[in-house]
Amino acid sequence: MDPWHIVRITMRLYSSYSRRKEDLALPPGPIGMYVCGPTVYQRIHIGNARPFIFSMWLRRWLELSGYQARLVLNVTDINDRIYDAARAQGISSAELARQAAQWYFEDTSALGLGRPDVEPLATETVPEIVALIGELIARGLAYESAGDVYFGVARFPDYGLLSGARPEDMVAQEPGPRKEDPRDFALWKANKADEDTWWPSPWGPGRPGWHIECSAMAEKHLGPRFEVHGGGLDLRFPHHENEVAQSRGAGRDFARLWIHNGMLELRAEKMSKSVGNVVSLRASLDSWGREPILVFFLNAHYRSPVEYSDAAMEAARAQVADFRAAARVAEQRPCAFAWDSFRAALDDDFDTPRALSILHAWRAAGQVELLGRGLRVFGLAIDADGTEAPPEVHRIAEARQAARQRRDFRDADRLRSEIDRLGWDVQDGSGGAFRLVRKRR
Prior knowledge:
By secondary structure, the chain is α/β, with parallel strands linked by helices. Helix content is about 40%, strand content about 15%.
């Protein structure tokens, strides 16, 4: 008996807002996802890669589960840290942001997971940001002060529901003499003499605050209501709390579920560029390669903290070697876990440690087809040594399986012929399973 054979109708994720697991809409959805990306002023560290990896895996799994999934992962290219870093390097803030964004695209592409559907820049969204700020002023939730615009925290009664922060216990998020209340946060910042970029607005030249950028980018690309908002746990307060206040204050439903990944730690301390205890993603890629990084993150549930160390990466590299050698297992044996076990693990709050244990069980039993199918969810593969088919052949085989399930046997036969032309045989098993075997020449 399969100990984890739990077939769910839909997927569920833990929402930080409700503090419980919530069911997603039934397939096909759609599922719109907005995930907060990096502020670009230097190469991202390995911890910054976690929300990228998790969200790309999640989108892939949703698509395989029959959902229409759309992932928006932003790039913050207007921020105080960019001005400070550019000034220290003697270059323009726009030049630094462009260079650091390019590094980010290069380094995350090297993970081999593809790209999000949309990767908006804050600099491309300023008109929408200005319009949203205007709405908040018109609704009495924001006010102008000497060229700045602030959101009045006390004017939004639901402030604190996401993070649990109590307004009466809060201290100033951004100290400044222009505020009516120290707890208020900036929506628009008047241009300062040492800032080399600015945009026009009804309140004078300046730039957006950090929090309003994400509210505007999410709505621009996903609409006023969408299913999932994600990001690192360190963003829950104040960044995500402020997004809720801005967007719901402006009359939008905004995100239904809020999901937060745990922090990456180095010597039991949160990895942070501002603290300086960082290992860049590029350095980790150069030292270990992309597959050990992916397996390293598979070992921990996305909501849990995880410690980065040489020992942890060595262990991940050893697991990669085991998976890649799976085709050399002498004999296939029965296994307690079917594909539905794997599906149940990922449908239950994307439990990758449980899914990983199933992958190892398949490897040990020589269940190469199931193993290869599961590994592909996470951008991994068995050695292409004549046993594991390339991704193109697997895509055709999966399309053929879908044709058979809808009883379109003419299309299924056509796709089988295409697989044959590419040098592979497809062997059908029970429950929709199949195995690809290289043809003998």
